[in-house]
Amino acid sequence: LIGRLMFELPEEMGLIAIAVQQTQGKGRGGNVWLSPVGCALSTLHITIPLHSNLGQRIPFIQHLVSLAVVESVRSIPGYEDIDLRVKWPNDIYYSDLMKLGGVLVNSTLIETTFHILIGLGFNVNNSNPTICINDLITKFNKEEGTKLKALTADCLIARTVTVLERLIDIFQEKGPNGVLPHYYKYWVHSGKQVRLHNEEGPIAWIVGIDDYGFLQVHEEGKGVESVHPDGNSFDMLRNLIVPK
């Protein structure tokens, strides 16, 4: 429905679809996601001019969205230290331990405009099967003696879209350097050592993200190389970057 509507609406009109639960959500690589009540689920349509900073670096969209989700919580006064983080290329994590959300971006180029559909889902209120944002808040209250309130899915969707709008504006004005310092503040990979291809593969260190949003790794004796998410998977449990 939203895929048909997005070409019919006036350019200045925003479009978002929000679901309470989801039985056939799409993930990367053809995966299907089942999302129960208590998750924040939405598909957002935005347009990006091809000849703009972001239009020339479209893979960055997924990083901006992931960062917006984390910021939607950590920019609330008192919630700055809730350990919500981003994992390259498109996941939302509790520390570097558990996934609690993800982002999937589809783009269509028509003439000189990208039409972007951003699929977004993150666990706000379900303790199972892994962990949720409100569990992190409860844990923080217990450890720090605070009384932070639980958050709602609709509040966090609204905050995410608002933060994303600001991040896109910054990126369009300043390019990658306008947002990367903030992204690195929240990502899980700084200085992490990984092996390439398999468990006996060469050792590399994660350096950062290049100007087009691809992961940079430094392999011993070979210098810095970029790794593309479409062809590689980052297995955090085994610290591997492996071909898909």
UniProtKB/TrEMBL annotation:
**Domain of life, source organism:** Eukaryota
Q: Which SUPFAM superfamilies does the annotation name?
A: Class II aaRS and biotin synthetases
Which positions, given as ranges, span the membrane?
none
Q: Give the UniProt keywords, A-Z.
A: Ligase
- Signal peptide range in chain numbering: none
Molecular function terms from GO: biotin--[biotin carboxyl-carrier protein] ligase activity
Keyword set includes tRNA-binding: no
* A GO CC term assigned to this protein in UniProt: cytoplasm
List each copy of the BPL/LPL catalytic domain by range: 1-172
List the Pfam families: BPL_C, BPL_LplA_LipB
The family database entries (NCBIfam families) matched by this protein are listed as:
birA_ligase
- Family note: Belongs to the biotin--protein ligase family.
Descriptive protein name: BPL1 ligase
What lineage is on file?
Eukaryota, Metazoa, Chordata, Craniata, Vertebrata
